[in-house]
Structure to design on (139 residues):
């Protein structure tokens, strides 16, 4: 009897092409790295280092320029933390914008709170393969 061949499901090379990813982090080096990584995958990185910059990506008039997903650092050192930013992005976008919280805090409490917000938690340092898989599932 022949056994079925199990193959790993690998996203197509251009599976993320054109995906608009809003990256919110107060560290310019992180934003540069995200821009480069997303560019390799042909995704479009929209970057913001403050809450106001992040919200400006939602408040524009052109719906074609809105982000498809958001990657938000938890500790922004701004008036809102990452979960607050995600909640405000969704409120202004009037939709459940898919979002992941990026953090070095892997505590169960934060993971539970993020789940209540409907957010994934990607623990820093985020592995590119994990990030790509998360994006591909939402793109």
């Amino acid at each position: 009897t022949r056994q079925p061949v199990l193959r790993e499901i690998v996203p197509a090379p251009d599976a993320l092409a054109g995906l608009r990813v809003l990256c919110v982090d107060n560290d310019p080096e992180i934003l540069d790295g995200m821009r480069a990584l997303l560019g390799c995958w042909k995704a479009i990185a929209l970057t913001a280092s403050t809450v106001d910059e992040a919200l400006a990506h939602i408040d524009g008039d052109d719906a074609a320029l809105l982000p498809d997903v958001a990657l938000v650092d938890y500790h922004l050192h701004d008036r809102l933390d990452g979960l607050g930013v995600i909640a405000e992005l969704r409120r202004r976008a009037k939709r459940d914008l898919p979002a992941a919280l990026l953090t070095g805090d892997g505590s169960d409490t934060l993971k539970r709170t993020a789940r209540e917000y409907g957010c994934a938690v990607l623990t820093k340092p985020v592995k590119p393969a994990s990030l790509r898989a998360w994006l591909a599932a939402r793109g």
